[in-house]
Amino acid sequence: APRIIAITNQKGGVGKTTTAINLAAALVERECKVLLVDMDPQGNASTGLGIMSDQRDRSTYDVLMNDMSVADAVHQTDLDGLSLIPATTDLSSADIDLAKAVDRSQKLRKAFSPLSQKDWDYILIDCPPSLNLLTVNAMVAANSVLIPLQSEFFALEGLSQLMLSIREVRQTANPDLRIEGVLLTMFDKRNNLSQQVEEDARDNLGEIVFQTRIPRNIRVSESPSYSMPVLTYDTASQGAVAYRALAKELLNRAEAV
Amino acid sequence: APRIIAITNQKGGVGKTTTAINLAAALVERECKVLLVDMDPQGNASTGLGIMSDQRDRSTYDVLMNDMSVADAVHQTDLDGLSLIPATTDLSSADIDLAKAVDRSQKLRKAFSPLSQKDWDYILIDCPPSLNLLTVNAMVAANSVLIPLQSEFFALEGLSQLMLSIREVRQTANPDLRIEGVLLTMFDKRNNLSQQVEEDARDNLGEIVFQTRIPRNIRVSESPSYSMPVLTYDTASQGAVAYRALAKELLNRAEAV
Ligand SMILES: Nc1ncnc2c1ncn2[C@@H]1O[C@H](COP(=O)(O)OP(=O)(O)OP(=O)(O)O)[C@@H](O)[C@H]1O
Ligand SMILES: Nc1ncnc2c1ncn2[C@@H]1O[C@H](COP(=O)(O)OP(=O)(O)OP(=O)(O)O)[C@@H](O)[C@H]1O
Ligand SMILES: [Mg+2]
Ligand SMILES: [Mg+2]
Q1: Of ligand 2's atoms, which has the minimum distance to the CA of residue B126?
Q2: pLDDT under 70 in chain A at which residues?
Q3: Beta strand pairing status for A75-76 and A82-85?
Q4: Which residues are CB-neighbours of B92 under 8 A, at least 6 positions away?
Q5: How far is the CA of A245 from the centre of ligand 3 (A)?
Q6: For chain A, where are the alpha helices, taking DSSP H only?
Q7: How far is the C-alpha of A255 from the C-alpha of A248, rounded, in Å?
Q8: Does any ligand 2 atom lie closer than 6 A to the CB of residue B38?
Q9: Among partner residues A42, A131, A152, which is closest to B11 by beta-carbon distance?
Q10: β-pair partners for A82
Q11: Residue A202 and residue B81: Cα distance in Å, rounded?
């Protein structure tokens, strides 16, 4: 079966979508077949990969609420090997709609159950900035959670709450849920705050924190306006180099397990 | 009655909390009495003003779910004239708990109804990164909405969705809800992306966009780790100067109306 990774952190603006898009692109460069599932009603991952809002006739909402199969909901992106299930704004009502369903936190997992390694090597799920039913669905369906951590003060504050939620999902619905890793994002080595956050993270979380740090890099934030990952937009940029290093580290960890 | 402003944008990490804390501090400098209500389960505004999680025995959750009065829930901060109702993590379940209540979107407005100008001149509400029942409660209780807009590509994408939600609240629950303004945050004048976002925002939204832009300024992101607004942490910083200019512009607009 594919390896399923939920990219989540309820703190907003920490680089979840940017990591989902660029890690997916870096895995595809390494000959992996990747599916990106956009679970955020904002639809930033969908836009960042060039699937505009008027092209999202089949979406994550359909998979969760209308029993559409993953195979029917998938869109091709401009990148060979990278497929996407886009998000629409009606996903924001899925939270309240799902609350009434019996199997409300299992919907995504059930949709993934027919899938095999032949379909995809990796499924990445971009989560909204909240610990709501959409994020819980992603954690229940996933093998592991990748946590982007912005190198800023407020970012550390939410981490313990997130770890509690992961433990709760592990105890109630998904006993195998692991932490893939914590990823330092928007890192600026000239700035004390970034260094402080890295020190705190490595002291408290140890090996869980990826060695790879993603630097703050303007080319990263420009790339979605051209509907492409930074790896395509500016292949030699610091951002592209860092996301390739992350893919390599992730694949090495997977082999070691 | 106090003027009530909800600071909201479902896009994460755009500067809602930073604006709530520093605009509150700048209004206090101008002799206004201000109450800041933290509606985000992350509790960043509470931490940023020095009310740590073990001191939040009375909180926004109590006001919404346990009929605690605003007067009983208020904490003093280190700043004379600035009071706070802190947020706790159980607020994240308030969303699902509130869904069952009859008057689920009116809870905060009812809690504010006994308040008068003698209590506060301004009430600022820091919202979570989502269009959930907590944010709807804030919009129903508010006179106006202030929208921080990060000067980045993904930021513009969510704006139309937010405007639709504001219109919906105006039509169903709060006919007087106005837009206080759209505030450009983390603005970097050396960077094309920032200039592009400013141009797009002023072209599409005109006068709604504040003249004041908040620059990206490291002192702003350092100040919450010292539990103080940037106005106190580094009074001469570009961030402090910009938030004072914002308070002045806001007060001028209020007089003009
Ligand atoms: N390494 C980086 N260097 C510079 N800018 C970055 C970097 N990573 C992300 N950004 C920018 O920071 C902003 C926030 O990133 P992003 O939208 O990926 O975060 P998010 O966690 O998905 O946000 P949300 O909580 O709203 O879903 C975006 O404008 C993005 O382009
Ligand atoms: N003008 C600025 N210059 C530099 N850094 C800033 C500025 N404004 C905000 N920040 C930093 O950017 C990050 C995001 O800001 P903030 O937490 O206020 O956004 P938010 O919209 O409240 O996020 P959330 O969606 O999680 O509630 C924080 O680490 C903050 O310190
Ligand atoms: Mg995102
Ligand atoms: Mg905030």
Answers
A1: 22
A2: 257
A3: antiparallel
A4: A130, A131, B41
A5: 21
A6: 16-29, 44-48, 60-65, 70-73, 91-98, 107-112, 133-141, 153-172, 192-205, 218-222, 230-233, 238-256
A7: 11
A8: no
A9: A42
A10: A34
A11: 39
Q: In what order do the strands lie in the sheet with A75-76?
A: A75-76, A82-85, A34-38, A122-126, A3-7, A144-150, A178-187, A209-215
Within 8 A by CB and 6+ apart from A137, the residues are A39, A64, A98, A104, A105, A106, A107, A108, A109
Q: Are B65 and B134 in contact (CB under 8 A)?
A: no
Cβ burial, residue A116 (10 Å; 0-12/13-18/19+)? exposed
Chain A positions in Cβ-Cβ contact with residue B93 (cut-off 8 Å): none
- Quote the minimal CA–CA distance from A122 to chain B in Å: 25
From CA A188, how far away is CA A157, in angstroms rounded?
19
Q: Give B135's contacts (C-beta < 8 A, 6+ positions apart).
A: B6, B8, B10, B39, B127, B128, B165
**Residue in the structure block whose two tokens are 């390896």:** A3
Out of A17, A154, A161, closest to residue B224 by CB: A154
For tokens 């141009």, the residue is B199
pLDDT digits (tens, 9 = 90+) for B71-97: 999 999 999 999 999 999 999 888 788
Read off the amino acid at residue A38.
Answer: D
Rounded CA gap, A39 and A46, in Å? 10
**Distance (Å) from the C-alpha of residue A222 to the closest C-alpha of chain B?**
7
The pLDDT value given to residue B169: 97
Query: What's the one-letter identity of residue A76?
Result: Q
Burial degree of B190 (CB within 10 A; 0-12, 13-18, 19+): exposed
Helix, coil or strand: residue A125 = strand
Residue A117: both structure tokens together: 């390694």
Over residues A26-41, the pLDDT tens digits come to: 999 999 999 999 999 9
CA distances from A81 to A24, A25, A56, A187, A253 (A): 10, 9, 19, 29, 22
Structure tokens at A196: 């402080």
